[in-house]
Each structure stands twice: as structure tokens, then as C-alpha cells.
What we know:
Layout lengths: L1 E5 L2 E5 L2 H13 L8 E2 L3 H8 L5 E5 L2 H8 L11 E5 L5 E6 L6 H12 L2 E2 L4 H5 L4 H7 L2 E3 L2 H12 L4 E4 L2 H9 L6 E4 L16 E3 L2 E7 L5 H14 L7 E7 L6 H10 L3 E4 L1 H5 L9 H7 L5 H8 L1 E11 L2 E8 L4
Helix pairs in contact: 9-10
Amino acid sequence: MERIDAGKYKFICFTDAGCKQMVSIAEKLPADGVEVLPVSSLSEWTGEVFFQGNILVFIGAIAIAVRAIAPFIKDKTTDPGVIVIDERGQFVIPILAGHIGGAIDATYEIAELLGAVPVVTTATDIRGEFAIDVFARRHDLEIDDMKLAKEFTAKLLSGEDAVFTVSPRTRDKAESYKVAGKAWDKDDSKSSSTWETGHNPNLIPRCLVVGMGCRKGKSFEELHDFLMSILSENRLDPRALKALVSIDIKCEEDGLRRLSNEFGIPFLTFSAQELMEQKGDFSSSEFALKTTGADNICERSVMAYGAGKMLVRKTARDGMTIAIGVYADEE
């Protein structure tokens, strides 16, 4: 067994012919070099790469892929996309997380590179219907209730009218997406008597940027409880989290890294110089300035990420600080 990492694509193959096909595909993708590495355990490799954001690509039999991923499958909202390609490169088949995990988009991309046949079986795709989970993924939105989303899709496929609820800014995106006639979006400015909003899926923009600082060694549990309490106090939905940010000396802080993994958001850090270059009205700490080179880590890191407005100013508790802003695109 051999593997190649090419950006989000994680390839694995099982034969010499499969390896040649794997290398050929990887060389066509925008990646920094192609390195073929040995794999000693299929189960270990699968566990290492099985998280959302990756696309797992098996070059070989579907049965091998199914057995490999089976122990790791949890939920369609968190599973990564998985596709299978035969070793001759004739067919590209998505087998897991086609929409939210991105497997179907990846299938079409690779099939085009190979001149292969994309074998897609999802009803919305083969009928050319609007797919709410694809729309949500492409526009960085979170579906609040997957059961309602499933009912929404069922209505479309049976020829009924279907409605989903969005924020005003997201509504503009939906219109530009050219939603088919049977599917509407709605914003909260319309009367609830017009639409039964409680029976329609709501799309939540991932727009909250969380800046945090902490004493070295703060546990994941402490950081998690702190974040959740601040979100609750300010009536902010954790599903709207977009990124966790801090200063670069915290880049290896285990509690912060685990916190970002818990919410499935990136953890990004900035240098003290980058933080101090931020313009705005920030509270200042002489101690923080002396020890880190930045007088305010949480608020400045939020703005360094690109937030356009601060929702929660610096709040300190038990050796931890937090600030929350709204990403500029979602003000």
C-alpha cells in the first residue's frame, strides 16, 4: 500500500497500476510536489486522515474502502468526503459525505482531470435540483436541523414547494445561486405568518471569530467551559463559530488546539507585531505587553483575522481572556 497527500486530497492505492494512476492524478492537482509514501496499516492511515476538510481517495475496489472507513463513520455533518477510483481511471465514485463533505464536487473535479465517468447517484444531483447542504457548504453556513433539511429535500423531490430560512446577507447569496422555482429562501424581515418558520431548516452563517489568550497549560475543559459560558451570556450560537485566533506563542497550546478541533474550526495565530499593527480602541495590559509583546491578545487577534465589528469585548476569568467579533463579510 502507498499513499500521496495532495492538499485536501489523501490518496491511497493497493497495486502497481493503482500507484501509477494515483501519481498521475496527484500531478494534475495544485499541490507542492508529489511524494509517494508507504502505508503499513490501512486502518491507521484511515484514522489519521478521517476528518472533515479532507477528501479520502481510494484507488481500488469499493469493498476495500467501505471496510476501511466503516469503523470511523459518525455523522454526515462531520464525516469527510470519500471517493473511489478504479485503477484504470475509468470511473470516479463518491461513497460518503457527498454534499457536506464535498465528495461529489471532488468527484466531478477528478473525473474531469481523468476524462472519467463520474458515478453520482444522489437524487438532487441526477435531477438537477437545488441541494440545501451543498449550498450551505459552499457559503460557509451551518444547517440547524438535519431532519428538517431532509424533509426540505423530500418536498423538492416530490414536486412540492420548500422553504429555508436565511439571514439577509445569505439571502443575496441564495438569489445569486439561482435557486430553482420550487425552492425559496426567506429572511426574518418577512412576517412569520407568511411562512411556518418552525418547520423549515435555518441556515446559520459561520461568522463569529473568537480570540482567546490563556496561561500556559490551561486545560481544554476550562477553555471550553469559559467559551460556552460567554456564548451563552451573549446569546450567541456556537454553530456560528468561524475561527479561533490567538498570538503565535500559543500556537502549540494543547487546550486551544483541542478547542478548535471540538468545534471543527481553524486555529490561527498572529505575531505580536501583527497584533500591535491593528487599529482600534483596545483595552491595554502592561503585563501582557511585557510578557508577549502585545498589550491585548484576544481583541487584537479577532481584528487581525478580519472581523469588522467586536461583539464581546475582552473578558477575563481565571487566567483566560476572550473576545468575539463578527467577520467583516457578515457584518
